[in-house]
Amino acid sequence: MTAAPAATVRRHRRTGAYWVLTAIVVGECAVGGTMDLFRMPPFYPMMIDLGYPGYLATILGTAKILAAVVLSVPGLPRLKEWAYAGVVINMTGAAASQAAMNHRSIGDLIAPAAFAGLAILSWALRPPTRRL
Fold this sequence. Notes:
Blueprint: H1 6-37, H2 43-49, H3 55-72, H4 77-100, H5 106-125
Helix pairs in contact: 1-3, 1-5, 3-4, 4-5
């Protein structure tokens, strides 16, 4: 039995990393979106404390759940691009909002920034079948 070519091993590792990162991003979108829709702590009270209107939770929750679905299903490459963009915009906006309000802990800033980074990595590692 011969060893697998290095390119095949790299491709499998890349595919595995893509699916792990995508599962984390999809999970965050699904759970976070559900929590937004049901106005659950800690995110809803934090959002209100930052000065955002309550109805924004419904808009963001719906968008996050739709992003989770689009990122999970096969096909839909253009919608996937928009879903990734939405996740990154949402998370960087959350991090920026936390940074603008100096009374937050560093953890409140790092978590959304980390999820934005994970979404960017998932996007960068996606297989050719999920690209435009």
